[in-house]
Amino acid sequence: MALSKPRLIDLHRIADPRGNLTVVSEADGLPFEPVRCYWINDVPGGCQRQGHAYFTSAEVIVPLAGSFTVTTGSPGSADTSDFLLTRPDRGLYIPPMTWRELHSFTVNAVALVISSTLYDETDYIRSAEQFNSLSATSDEI
Ligand code: TYD
User: Fold this and answer.
1) Cα 26 to Cα 48: distance, rounded to the nearest angstrom
2) Among 99, 136, 115, 98, which Cα is nearest to 38's?
3) Tens digit of each residue's pLDDT (9 = 90 or more) over 59-76
4) What pLDDT does 56 receive?
């Protein structure tokens, strides 16, 4: 149903004896033009974020600090993939129509999310049942 699969992408890191600098833009290999970014931090132990999919938004999620796991795939099914994100120069590309959940945050974790669209609540699929139903319909076509 998704236009393509989630995949890890190596970001453009410019190594320097003074420290690393990493840059994202389409010219630097981002799969879309970045329009918005937001970040998630101070996640209490055991909490999960982003249990949803988007109709049109694509995102790249980058662990700026600490680590966390992104699980993609149909919620409640065995058909899921876990991506442990640990490196601030490696992000996870998530195409539209992909259910994702972020969990297992370390205490210092900061998740930077780069989006292809502006915030639009109507672009969200927040119900796992709706998502699975849309997936099933799409698979039949
Ligand atoms: P939400 O998408 O529900 O968080 P999660 O990533 O855990 O699914 O967003 C939490 C709240 O923040 C919600 O009320 C919508 C709001 N929000 C914005 O106003 N603008 C944004 O760009 C984002 C990502 C969220």
Assistant:
1) 29
2) 115
3) 999 999 999 999 999 998
4) 97
Which residues of the chain have a pLDDT value below 70?
1-3, 140-141
For a ligand 1 pocket test, name from 35, 49, 123 the mutation site with the most ligand atoms within 8 angstroms of its C-beta: 49
Contacts of 91 (CB under 8 A, 6+ apart): 8, 9, 11, 24, 60, 61, 62, 85, 114
Among protein residues, the one with the nearest Cα to ligand 1's atom 25 is 119
Is residue 72 within a helix (H) or strand (E), and if so which, with residue range? strand 68-73
Report pTM: 0.95
| Overall size of the chain counted in residues | 141
